[in-house]
Amino acid sequence: MTEEIEVNEVKGFQPRSVRYAGQMDEAFGEGLAGFYSAVWADREGGLSKKDKHLLVFAIACSSLKTESAVKILQRLKKFGATAEEIKDAMMIAAWTGGIQNFTDVSPQVLKEMERLGF
After folding, report:
1. How far apart are CA 50 and CA 75, in angstroms?
2. Alpha-carbon span 59 to 71, nearest angstrom
3. Of 3, 49, 88, 106, which sits with the fewest C-beta atoms within 10 Å of its C-beta?
4. What CA–CA distance (Å, rounded) separates 92 from 98?
5. 80: which residues sit within 8 A by CB, 6+ positions away?
6. Tens digits of residue pLDDT in 86-118
7. What is the pLDDT of residues 68-86, one digit of tens each?
8. What is the spatial distance between Cα 14 and Cα 7, in angstroms, rounded to a whole number?
9. What is the 3-state secondary structure (H, E, C) of 61-106?
10. Which residues form the Carboxymuconolactone decarboxylase-like domain (predicted)?
11. Quick count: other Cβ atoms within 10 Å of Cβ 23?
12. Residue 74 in contact with residue 116, Cβ under 8 Å?
């Protein structure tokens, strides 16, 4: 699938959902790959990949998607995010998701931040 190759280049890996969709139906796989490509593409005047990852990190934290938040930290490291940017995103997550979600997700996220050297 041509779109899957583009997803690998844009996202850095092939998301499982694209692989599963392609196994179900080639057109569905192509459509989902196109969605990924559109979301993560660099566009002039658009958000950088780092900014996009900061946004999805905050959303993952605010919705208790701890495993996703920890994985996104690895991408944030790759894209040069600072510890302060990540902490700001965590505070936004606490603001939007509630302090209990922040309390629940923080131990694993802070542990991964330390491991990655943030």
Report:
1. 8
2. 13
3. 88
4. 10
5. 50
6. 999 999 999 999 999 899 999 999 999 999 999
7. 999 999 999 999 999 999 9
8. 6
9. HHCCCHHHHHHHHHHHHHCCCCHHHHHHHHHHHHHHHCHHHHHHHH
10. 28-104
11. 10
12. yes
- Per DSSP, the residues of 34-62 read HHHHHHH---TTS--HHHHHHHHHHHHHH
Amino acid (1-letter code) at residue 50: K
pTM of the model: 0.82
pLDDT for the residue numbered 37 = 86
Rounded distance, CA 64 to CA 58, Å?
Answer: 10
* Nearest in space to 55 (alpha carbons), one of 110, 16, 93: 93
Distance CA 118, CA 116 (A): 6
What average pLDDT is seen over the chain?
89
